[in-house]
Design a protein that fits this description.
Blueprint lengths: L2 H23 L7 E9 L6 E4 L3 E6 L2 E6 L5 E6 L8 E8 L2 E7 L8 E7 L5 E8 L4 E8 L2 E7 L19 E5 L5 E6 L2 H7 L6 E4 L5 E4 L5 E6 L8 E7 L8 E3 L6 E6 L4 E8 L1
Antiparallel strand pairs: 1-20, 2-3, 3-4, 4-5, 6-7, 7-8, 8-9, 10-11, 11-12, 12-13, 14-15, 15-16, 16-17, 18-19, 19-20
Length: 278
């Protein structure tokens, strides 16, 4: 056989498994779209939405408003005192009758974070867990696969009189916690996703029943479907979907059969429900 031909064949045989392996890694974007099914005016819809079987919760820095999920009527409201210990609530998840909210001292430095807990029925504050100074500012948390998950955000933006960026957006970390709220594992976000969020960071996240993590940035009307990698420390981007919410905190409604994602329009102070149709 011609030595040149043999060399080409050998190279192809070596490359073939690599190409096949790379092809296997490529995600297949799921088909579907988000369709609006509800929209309510909610003055507290400035940071996030949370949801349970009968209600949707509008969250802002120092307040939580509980609205009827069908009519949008205000049912209850909790407000923190100006100058009190609650500074910046950033998202919420209702689990077993309790509303768990991510809290930080954003934009103060050094960054501190805590989980604050309310009884979802009464909106009475019933618990807290402080992380102190850890990996950044806790922006969201959720319960999934028998564990708690949350994101500690960092930002490339410079605030106020500070001469230094508030961390760096690319340091933003997804953390899986053990039952004592100690970090067990961590992952970073794909560069393409963080680039969309700069100079801010990842403001919302909620696990879908398809096993994918749906995450939002700070400003754009889009949600990123992500999955845990089989190797390494970077989440894999599966798909990007347009939504009506302008980033911020989101929450899947796990109370029924329909796939409905709740979000906010910060600009219009509205709660928005969008059903995912496959």
């Amino acid at each position: 056989m011609n030595p040149k031909i043999a060399a080409v064949l050998a190279a192809c045989l070596i490359a073939a498994p690599v190409l096949a392996q790379d092809a296997a890694k490529q995600p297949v974007a799921p088909s579907g779209r988000f369709v609006e099914i509800a929209r309510f005016k909610a003055p507290s819809a400035r940071q996030a939405a949370a949801v349970d079987a009968g209600h949707v919760y509008a969250i802002t820095d120092r307040a939580i408003a509980k609205h009827d999920k069908t009519t949008g009527a205000l049912v209850k409201e909790w407000k923190g005192a100006e100058g009190g210990p609650i500074i910046h609530l950033d998202s919420g998840a209702v689990v077993d009758g309790k509303l768990y909210a991510a809290h930080s001292n954003y934009p103060a430095s050094p960054m501190t974070s805590s989980v604050e807990i309310w009884d979802a029925a009464t909106l009475e504050h019933v618990g807290t867990h402080s992380f102190g100074i850890l990996l950044g500012s806790l922006t969201w948390l959720d319960r999934h696969d028998g564990a708690w998950w949350g994101v500690f955000a960092n930002y490339s933006r410079v605030f106020g009189q500070s001469q230094q960026p508030y961390g760096n957006s690319y340091w933003t970390t997804l953390v899986k916690f053990d039952e004592a709220w100690k970090p067990a594992q961590g992952w970073t976000f794909p560069a393409a996703v963080i680039k969309r969020a700069e100079p801010m960071s990842m403001s919302g996240g909620s696990w879908g029943k398809d096993g994918l993590l749906y995450a939002t940035g700070h400003d754009h009307k889009e949600v990123y479907a992500l999955r845990l990698p089989k190797m390494g420390s970077v989440l894999e981007l599966v798909a990007t979907y347009p939504i009506e919410g302008e980033g911020q905190g989101i929450a899947w409604d796990r109370s029924g059969g329909a796939d409905t994602l709740w979000m906010i329009s910060r600009a219009k102070t509205e709660l928005i429900g969008q059903r995912f149709e496959r």
